Every structure is written in structure tokens, then in C-alpha cells.
Amino acid sequence: MKSSSGPKNLTNYILNQTQLKSSKSISVLLMQGILAGLYIAIGAIGSLKVSASVTSPGLGDFLGAVVFPVGIIAIIVMQAELYTSNCMITSAIYAGQSKAKKIFQILSLVLFANLLGSIFAAFLTVASGMFNESVIALVTEKALTKVNIPLGQLFASAIFCNIIVCTGVCLAYNSKDEIAKLITLWLAITVFVISGTEHVVANMYYLFAALFYGAPLTAKDIVYNLLVAAIGNFIGGGIIVAGINCLLASRTEVKQDSSSSLAV
């Protein structure tokens, strides 16, 4: 029986998705990217409100992590465009099916659109008054912590973050049953949130929400965190996860071709 999982099938799926993304107009990518920024913010809002409402820090962090994945799930189900998971479209470069310029154009546009969606969500959060003092204090503390992470630690955290996130997305891609897909993705993203690693799009929401609530953040602080996180996320998803899977997929093809030759 032919397997529907593994690096080869995963890489083929990502290559097909890359072709679809490449065929989308700039306006469609922009709108879907804005939606993805909003979806991540929705998960972050739920996570913050749950965490702030629980007096036990450990339990609050866990329950907040369990709520957060709804944003990623919405992105997968609604086929929105998220920078971090899109980093894996570098597979098309490794496979020789696309030029690097095209791939980086898509990633840059999606990252910009995610930023627009996150800023809009942060603005609506403040304008709607949905956060009480304890939630404002939590998002402010989180934002100030993020912009003060040392460079090396921030970079390593961002790399590991997208290894976790893209691994979860890969597991979801390989799941044929919708319920299994959602459960797998939920567990993987919960692990990412519990790990406390740096996700550039989630950080967009946290930093701008804190800024709009009056946190002492500068443009330099925000650019520092988001730039390093974006590069680290790219390495984790676009080079490590996508690169290794492409390498394994090519090795699988070579072995299959050799087996076929021997059989003849």
C-alpha cells in the first residue's frame, strides 16, 4: 500500500502549494496575509485573557497555550497566508522549480500583510476596550521582555520556534482526516506557545498592542525584535525543516529509481 506520508509526499504537497501561491495576484496574497495576521491575533487575545484570569502562573500559561492554536487552525482551514509556515515554499528553490527572487517576493509580501493585519488587530483591541488592567499588564510585560532578549538568544529562539511550528504544519499536511489534522496541529502549536519561543507574527500583535496601550517601546525596539525573529523563523522553517525534507525526498527518489532499475 502506498504511503501518503513522509518527506517525499510532504515535499510534493508543498511544491504544489507553492505553484498555487505563485499564481495568486498581489491583491489576493495581501488580503489573505492580512487575514492571517488577524487570525494569529485572535488566538493571542484568547491566550492573554485566559492567562491573565488565572492566579497560578504555571496553570495560566498552560491554559493560554491551549487556547492560542485557534489562530493557526483558522489559517489552515481558511487557507490564509502566514509568513512562518510559508517559509517552507523555499522547497521550490531546492527542487529547481522556482527562482529565489519569486519566493522571496512572496514571503516579503506575506510578511508585510501579516504586519498590517496584526497592527489593525492591536488597534481594534485598544479601541474596543476588551482588555482589563491585568491583561494590559500581561501584554506589556510580555512585549518589554521580548524587546530586551539578547541578540543570540532571540535568534536561536526564533529558529527553534519555526522548527516547532513548521513541524506541526507538516504533520497537519500529512493528515488526511480533518479531525486528526486539527488535533495534531493543536497539540504542536500548544507546544510552541509553552516553549516561549519567538514567532514574528505573534510578536507583531503583542508589541503593537502593548505600544497602543502606552508601553515604553521605541521603533528601534520593535524593529529589532521583529527583524531578528523574521530571519530566525526563516532559517528554522525555510532552511532546516524544508531543506532537510527536500534532501530526504531526493534521496528517496534516488533509491526508488535504483530499485526500479534492478527490478528490470
Molecular structure report:
- The protein is mainly alpha-helical.
- The protein has a single domain, classed as Up-down Bundle (Glycerol uptake facilitator protein).
- 82% of the residues lie in helices and 0% in strands.
- It has twelve helices and no strands.
- Helix 1 packs across helix 12 (219-263), helix 3 runs antiparallel to helix 10 and helix 8 (133-147) packs across helix 11.
- The two termini are 21 Å apart.
- The model is unreliable at 256-264 (pLDDT under 50).
Q: Nutshell version of this structure?
A:
The chain contains 12 helices and no strands. The protein is an all-alpha fold and 264 residues long.
- Output the CATH homologous superfamily: Glycerol uptake facilitator protein
CATH topology: Glycerol uptake facilitator protein
Strand content: under 5%
User: Averaged pLDDT, please?
Assistant: 91
Helix content: over 70%
Tell me the quaternary state: single chain
Tally of helical runs: 12
Which CATH class is shown? Mainly Alpha
Largest sheet: none
- The global form is globular
CATH architecture assignment: Up-down Bundle
Write down the domain tally: 1
Radius of gyration: 19 Å
Structural class: mainly alpha
Which properties best describe this structure?
264 residues; mainly alpha; Glycerol uptake facilitator protein; 82% helix; globular
Chain-wise SSE layout:
Blueprint: H1 7-23, H2 26-53, H3 57-67, H4 70-78, H5 83-86, H6 91-94, H7 100-128, H8 133-147, H9 151-174, H10 178-195, H11 200-212, H12 219-263
